[in-house]
Each structure stands twice: as C-alpha cells, then as structure tokens.
Specification:
Blueprint lengths: L5 H12 L3 H11 L5 H8 L3 H13 L3 E4 L2 E4 L2 H9 L14 H10 E2 L2 E2 L6 H12 L7 E3 H11 L3 H10 L3 E4 L2 E4 L8
Antiparallel strand pairs: 1-2, 3-4, 5-7, 6-7
C-alpha cells in the first residue's frame, strides 16, 4: 500500500499556483492592495484576460477570496498547509550516554544552542567538554574559524572561547587554536 504525503501534495499545489508569472504577479498585486481586476491589471501591466484567468485560478486554489466584491489574499493558506501535517517531533535522543551528564546538558543546551552558562564549575565543565567535542583533535583553527564555530552555540562567543581555554579544553598560540582536552569519541 502506497502512502501519499498530503502536505507535500498541498504545498506542491500552492507552489504550482505561483509558478506561472501571471499568477505570481497577480497574487503579489492583491497582497499589496489591488482588489479589482482593473487594479491588478494596472499594478502588474498584464492584459485583462490574463489577469482574469490568473485571479480565477488563484481563487480556485484557495489563495484568494472575494470580500465585498474585492479580491483579498488568503496568506493563511500557507500556514494552514504547513500546520495540517506538521512533522512528528524528533525522538528524544540523549546528548550524552551518561545519564547525569545528559541531564546537565539538557538543562543548558536547547536546539543546539547554549541557553546559559552554568554557574557551578562541575556543570560548566560538562557543557564545555560537550562544546569542545565540535573541534577535531589535531586540527589547528584560526581564531575567526573558532569564533564562527562558537557563535553557533552562543552569541557571546568570546566568553565561550575564554572558558574553553581556561578549562584547558582548547589551547592557543599566535591566534591559532587546537583542541587540547576533553573526551574524544573513538567510533
């Protein structure tokens, strides 16, 4: 039995509605305030027949509706299509195989970002070791590369970099950094 991804079909249909330039321009004109075929034609520079054909298809597809004789964009159609079949939540994958370390990481790391730095040194060390795992042992990183990698984790990447150096997880010399501590995953 074959299953059909309804969301993909719905989104494909919506994208298909806007794939033709006449419909895209007509929809944009309505979004920007044109409400009659004449206003849409004036805003888009399209001929009356092309405008009418485009508006009819957009209305049939659910992107436009008519209110008090004027076309109005139904932008919520996109949100509805996404919400209709939202992807299932990702499985709860541990951040660390050790339950205690995992609990610490879950308290301070959300969606791949450090939400705040732990005040307690032991917890801070767990978080910093986790982040240090992003750096490959034996690889030398120039400071801009380190900053870019740490900016993904936290906006205050300079403080994060200092913590990693202070905890001997990264070493530095002449603006070049390398991983010098923490656990190494050998798979």
């Amino acid at each position: 039995m074959q299953t059909i991804n309804v969301m993909a079909v719905r989104l494909d249909a919506l994208c298909g509605l806007l794939a033709e330039e006449e419909r895209l321009r007509s929809y944009a004109a309505v979004v920007l305030g044109a409400g009659t075929p004449g206003e849409v034609a004036q805003a888009t520079g399209l001929g009356g027949r092309d405008v009418m054909r485009a508006l009819r298809r957009l209305e049939e597809g659910g992107l436009l509706s008519t209110v008090d004789g004027r076309y109005v964009a139904r932008a919520a159609t996109f949100k509805d299509a996404i919400r209709e079949h939202a992807p299932a939540p990702l499985p709860d994958v541990p951040l660390d195989p050790d339950q205690e370390r995992d609990a610490v990481l879950r308290s301070f790391v959300r969606e791949g970002r450090l939400v705040r730095m732990p005040a307690a040194r032991g917890k801070r060390r767990v978080v910093l070791e986790y982040i240090a795992g992003e750096f490959d042992p034996g690889v030398r990183y120039p400071e801009p590369a380190v900053n870019a990698m740490l900016r993904v984790w936290h906006d205050d990447y300079a403080a994060l970099r200092r913590y990693l150096v202070d905890e001997d997880l990264l070493s530095r010399q002449d603006g070049v950094y390398w991983r010098s501590g923490g656990y190494v995953n050998v798979e």
